[in-house]
Write a structure and sequence with these properties.
The protein is mostly helical. It is built from six helices and no strands. Helix 2 runs antiparallel to helix 3.
């Protein structure tokens, strides 16, 4: 044992909070996929897979000896799905980046475990510093931009709803859009947190 148990318990608590955040985000996306029409269902299902995959990867005790390989396979499948979604427009490119980032982290975890390193919330992972750095920059920008958009959209919707009239119904519909943005922002923040531990 090195030092007191407080840092270890704090680290475990933060890891489980990340697991909870990703799992809740994945569950919300799964519900959205069940209720959405065909045009949105595929994207929501992909986001649900990402959320649950991130939750599994963030578990402090790890996912077992074959867990990283299984996660990498699932994420590669999600990347193929994201490539298919690109037919609908480049706005689906973020899902492709997310799937590839998850596959990269899963393979890095497998490589780290193969070299005898322990797995505790991402510590001991291998990985290419250049790739990790690029992904860190991407997700830092995504989180900052997404947070700014969410705050701005919230202010506009509050004014619209307060005025009443025809815009109030639109504000209620926009509230659901805000929740979707918040869910994506939460998963982006989780991805950034896991990349920071590599």
């Amino acid at each position: 044992m090195h030092g007191s148990a407080t840092p270890l318990s704090a680290s475990a608590a933060s890891a489980w909070l990340l697991v909870l955040l990703c799992a809740v985000s994945g569950a919300y996306c799964l519900l959205r996929a069940r209720r959405a029409d065909r045009t949105v269902r595929g994207m929501a299902a992909g986001e649900a897979v990402m959320g649950f995959g991130m939750a599994a990867m963030a578990v402090p005790s790890g996912t077992g000896p074959w867990g990283p390989q299984a996660l990498a396979a699932v994420c590669c499948g999600a990347a193929v799905h994201a490539l298919w979604l690109l037919r609908g427009g480049m706005h689906h490119a973020h899902h492709l980046v997310g799937a590839l980032a998850m596959a990269y982290m899963a393979l890095a975890t497998a490589a780290g475990n193969g070299h005898g390193h322990g797995h505790e919330h991402g510590h001991g992972q291998a990985g290419l510093p250049v790739v990790t750095g690029v992904l860190l920059l991407y997700y830092a920008g995504y989180v900052l931009l997404g947070g700014a958009r969410l705050v701005t959209a919230g202010g506009v919707l509050s004014v619209t709803a307060g005025e009443g009239g025809p815009g109030a119904a639109g504000a209620e519909a926009g509230g659901a859009g805000e929740l979707v943005r918040a869910c994506r922002l939460a998963m982006g923040t989780g991805m950034l947190a896991m990349l920071l531990t590599m």
